[in-house]
Amino acid sequence: MSEWQLSETFRSTSGGVRWGSLGHSGHDPVVLLHGTPFSSYVWRAIARALALRHQVFVWDMPGYGASEKYAGQDVSLAAQSRIFTELLTHWGLEEPLVVAHDFGGAVSLRAHLLHGVRYRALALVDPVALAPWGSPFFRLVGEHSEVFEQLPPALHHALVREYVSSASSPGLHPAVLDRLVEPWLGDLGQAAFYRQIAQADQRYTDEVQDRYGEIGFPTLVCWGEDDTWIPVAKGRELAARIPGARLEPIAGAGHLVQEDAPAELTAALLAFLQQPS
């Protein structure tokens, strides 16, 4: 799985951000945002498919994947939405197409509603957007992150592996699971895993969720029907709050739709992104 490499670095206020692009520079730009506890790796197949018609930008958020991780790092939704705004400026993208999963959904929504970033269209995939969010496990870890951070490496590895596995409905290929877990191992990775959970405060979505009615560009909400992390009912509620938004349920997929139903998700995204604005 070593073929997925991000070759560029953007120096942000929360550390080095690894990013890359696929496709031709003259094509319509699409930016992909990952969720937690994942990285741009989950977009690899879909990014390559979209790159046949678009220039596709991918990035690992600070504290995730191949991007920098360090003690005291700000990896909150507030920091990530600010850095996303800075990245769009760095890339010279004024009104791109955006596809955002999970935590990345909240990042894209905050960037638009709080930082004035415009999108030509926005596709949200099982996003963190409406309260309440966070499983009982997620909240438990957030409240006691300093305890979990001290787990022996073998126990930590088993915990992260089980947690990531639960995002898939049919189950992840072992090599894919290894790749998703790997950034969270070792001293830096283990501390970073609990840091990002400790900073995942619901107030960052509370700030914007009553403003979703202000969204004025085409919006698609895709949702895995078997998502046990955030139920599909939240997708129906979110689509109802955004003017003109359409809900696209995806059968047989859990929270990690990119892995569970990549063909179905790619087809939905291609059809949506090719529509006239």
Automatic annotation (TrEMBL):
Tell me where in this chain the AB hydrolase-1 domain is found.
29-262
Hey, what's the signal peptide range on this chain?
none
Instruction: Name the Gene3D superfamilies on file.
Output: alpha/beta hydrolase (3.40.50.1820)
Q: State the protein's name.
A: Oxidoreductase
